Amino acid sequence: MASIARIAPLLVLLLAQGCATPPRSLYADLGGRDGVDAIALELLSRTSDDSRIAHHFRNANIVRLHEKLVELICVEAGGPCVYSGASMAEAHAGRGLTEADFNALVENLIDAMESLDVPRRAQFRLLERLAAMHGEVLAPPRPRQARDDAASPPQDPTAAHRSGR
Ligand code: HEM
């Protein structure tokens, strides 16, 4: 009992300190608005020079893409932003993106963050958030028509003829 009484003030002090200094947000670790802006810019610059995936962005509106990327990363990192772009499924539907495309983009993002000296822990945390979007980016829901066609495969027009009916 005596020992608890001795450490109690220390515990109170530690708790008070913990409350006074909230953990830094990922947004802060990425460098806030300027940091996120620079990461998105560097990612797009590396991607447009990357012959593996640059063709996907041939007709892209890069100014808008940069703006939406900044918003998205900011929100994912817990920053004070609102994402106003298309959902990941909508934005990537019908683009035929592959696992290799996704990996190439992630590689460019890592290189971008390395070149900007983003702390490794913050890099991992952001990558973790973006990896969760993998399914939406690569496997957008199929259009209704394709789903209906798969549910009822087309009839063989020669079947009736062959069966003699
Ligand atoms: C986690 C991974 C990804 C994220 C977070 C992401 C994020 C975004 C965002 C925020 C937009 C803008 C949506 C809008 O305009 O409303 C977008 C569009 C687009 N993304 Fe991605 N993307 C990812 C993966 C990829 C990959 C792997 C590719 C191709 C290699 C790709 C190609 C495109 C293209 C071509 C557009 C449309 C640009 C335009 O038409 O202006 N994205 N993406």
TrEMBL record:
Binding locations of heme: H92
GO molecular function, one term: oxygen binding
Record region (Disordered): 137-165
Keywords carried by this UniProt record: Heme, Iron, Metal-binding, Transport
Protein name stated in the entry: Hemoglobin
InterPro entries associated with the record: Globin-like_sf, Globin/Proto, Hemoglobin_trunc
Source domain of life: Bacteria
